[in-house]
Amino acid sequence: MTSIVVVDTETTGFSSDEDAIVEIATVRLSWNGERYVTGECRTCLVDPERDIPVVSSAVHHLTNKDVEGSLKIREALDYVRIREDDVIVAHNATFDSGFLPQHANIIWICTWKCAQKLIPDAPSYGNQVLRYYLGIDVDAGQGRSGQPLSAGYDARTTAGILEILLSKASVEEMVAISASPVLLKKM
């Protein structure tokens, strides 16, 4: 079966050219013989080697002091274990893939795009909106990983969304949806 890993990043800002990752998490999904199920979550803080703007801290609640002495990005990527044969999944894959150019040649699935196609009646498509709409119970984890807008919590939420999407479409269908533009319902 396909090797799937969900990834989530928290960053110093929105520009993958100017900003850097401050936290990264992965959740590996495994095939249990009938379906994919959420497995191990790995998360770590990352030294962005630049200051974290306060407007970014206000979103993910990480400050320069929090990431002082953390892993450098190469070490963090080794720790979270994204493999070359993985299909990488993210909620808004365009954003996360921009911060992981070393994984640009790996196949990506965007749960944000897939949810818009496969769950058309959802009130909106943010990670937490889908969590509540779909009734996903996220294992809170300990400390920072137990908080929404931490990479660990958000990766576990995305993994829960992915499990539901996989009951509606195959990995291959979601790869195709992810490669296509999103048609907005409203403008």
What is the gist of this entry?
This protein is of the alpha/beta class and 187 residues long.
Describe the structure.
- There is one protein chain.
- With 187 residues, this protein is α/β, with parallel strands linked by helices.
- The chain is built from eight helices and five strands.
- It has helices at residues 54-60, 64-67, 73-80, 93-98, 111-118, 127-134, 151-166, 171-179; strands spanning 3-11, 21-31, 36-45, 86-90, 108-110.
- Strands 3-2-1-4-5 form a five-stranded mixed beta sheet, sandwiched between helices.
- Strand 2 and strand 3 form a beta hairpin.
- Helix 6 (127-134) packs across helix 7.
- The model has no long low-confidence stretch (mean pLDDT 94).
Distinctive features:
187 residues, alpha/beta, 20% strand, 35% helix
